[in-house]
Structure formats: C-alpha cells, structure tokens
Amino acid sequence: MTKNFKYKLGEGGYGSVFKGKLRSGHYVAIKLLGKSKGNGQDFINEVASIGRIHHVNVAKLIGFSVKGSKQALVYEFMSNGSLDKIIFSEENKETLGWKKMFDIVLGVARGIDYLHQGCDMQILHFDIKPHNILLDENFNPKVSDFGLAKLYSVEDSIVSLTAARGTIGYIAPELVYKNLGGISYKADVYSFGMLLMEMVGRRKNLIAFVDRTSQIYFPSWIYDRLDQGEDMELGDVSDDEKVLVKKMIIIAFWCIQLLPIDRPSMSEVLKMLEGDVELLQMPPKPFHQLPLDTSMEVDGCESSVDKPSTSSSAVTIINSNA
C-alpha cells in the first residue's frame, strides 16, 4: 500500500504521514503513529472523534489499522498538502489570491462549527493551526489531526481537562492560566483567530520583523495600523479584496480576545464572515497584561510539537470502507 513508506508527506507530534494506494486505485494518506502515550489514548481519541464525523470540511477517515504495537489511521488523500506549506513558503505564498484564501477561511470555520455543534457529541479539537488544515485538489480545506481532540456532551458549556493541550502560538490562554475563564469551545475559537492572523500576514504570529533592529508581536502591530486607519500594505489588490482582508482581520481580533467570554462562537464567526464588513465593530485590543491574581496552571501539557517517527513497518488495513 505504501511502497515501504517511500512517499512521506509530512510529520507531526503523533507520527509521520505517508502516501499510499488502495487496491481500488484510490490514493490515501497513512498516518503512522509514533510511540503511544497513555496506552494508545491518542489513537483512541482520533478514531473516536473522527469516526463520527461526516462533513465536507473535515478530513475523512477511511479506516484504521492495528498490528501489534503499530497503529495507523487511513485518511483520504489531499493533493495540495497542508495550509502551512502555502502561507509560510516564499515559493508558494502567492499561489492563492485573497478570494481563495477567504474561501478557505469560510471552509475551516464551517468545519470547526460542525465539530462544536453538528454531531451527537461536542468535539473540541484543541490543535487548530495551518499544519492541520489540509487542502484538496481544488484547495477546499479539511480540518485534520484529532490526536488532541476531546469529546464532551453537547450540554457542557464548560469542560474539564487534566492538562493543557495544544501548540505554542495557537493555544488559548485559559488552557494555561487560571482565572481567565473556564475551558470550552472558545479555546478552538482562539486558535482559529491565530490561524486567521497567519493567513493574513503570511507569516508566523510569534515574531514579525518590522525592520532590522526591532521585533514586534504581529497581531499587535496590525491592530495598531488598522485602528489608526493606515494601509495594510497588501500590494496590488482590488477594493473587493481589501474588504475581504479587513473582514478577516477584524474577526481574527474578536477570536483572540484574552477572556473566553469576549470571544464569539464559531456560529457567530460564520455570520460575521458572511455578513457586511461595515457592520463589524472593531473589538478591544486583545493584548492586555494578565490580571495580577492570574497564575499559571501547568501540571502537564499535551503538545503536538513536531517530532520524527522511527517506524517503517508495514500495516494491514482491518477496517476500511474504501
């Protein structure tokens, strides 16, 4: 199926992904998990989460494999790879125009909204980032990688976690700090906002170089420019494209508000994306100093920091709908 794992598509915190081909002739992506944590809990999380999902903007799980200690997940193949390879690559960053980028934003928002309220269980992803947004042959986005996802009752407005989880740069502050508010679907909203910022800036949010001598947090820099009515330096773009970018920026700032209670739900995000930009109010600047009584709460952290997989063993599909 994988030709001895010759065609590697990428890797992440839970293993490596290879291109494979089913007997039917269909190409698939084989996610070969690395050493399991918690008795394979990451594998169980992913199968349990995505096995109940059927949405055009969520990666489709075709099957899974267990052979001894080896575990693998079989997904539909996405020919254009992950979003990060488009927006962070100098070679590829001009591939998509702003209209298509906006369509990708809409698709991702619809996928996350479906996870939050479209299933019989509430699915919180906890790792929304460009690396986990896959693009098909038409650049339609699919939310992927459910290794950190958790399932909760749809009735739960606040959920419990034993450890912070996510990726630095996208993880919601309430997952790390006390007293900011309870953990909820608003954590995914925050990550979506950070993803939006990176799509607009075509760069990582952590550090942005304004000139050779100074560094500044990119969302803070762009907020000041927008608030002061300055041009976003988008280059040669149409007025319609400028409107789309402005809409993306304003919505991103709503999503990354410090307190979860101040962030919109993904349903509200969709309404803002589909509505008139002139109806959008500029939110408060979200980068405030944490309250004095706020303290860190990091008893442990489940992260998807990239790490290589050392396994090259073959797998056997034991549950496939292909």
UniProtKB/TrEMBL annotation:
Family stated for the protein in its record: Belongs to the protein kinase superfamily.
GO-annotated cellular components: membrane
Lineage top rank: taxon: Eukaryota
Protein name (record): Protein kinase domain-containing protein
Membrane association type: Single-pass type I membrane protein
Keyword vocabulary terms for this entry: ATP-binding, Glycoprotein, Kinase, Membrane, Nucleotide-binding, Serine/threonine-protein kinase, Signal, Transferase, Transmembrane, Transmembrane helix
InterPro entries: Kinase-like_dom_sf, LRK10/LRL21-25-like, Prot_kinase_dom, Protein_kinase_ATP_BS, Ser/Thr_kinase_AS
Subcellular location: Membrane
Glycoprotein listed as a keyword: yes
Sequence positions that bind ATP: K31
Presence of the UniProt keyword Cell inner membrane in the record: no
Pfam families according to UniProt: Pkinase
GO molecular function: ATP binding; protein serine/threonine kinase activity
Domain named Protein kinase: residues: 3-280
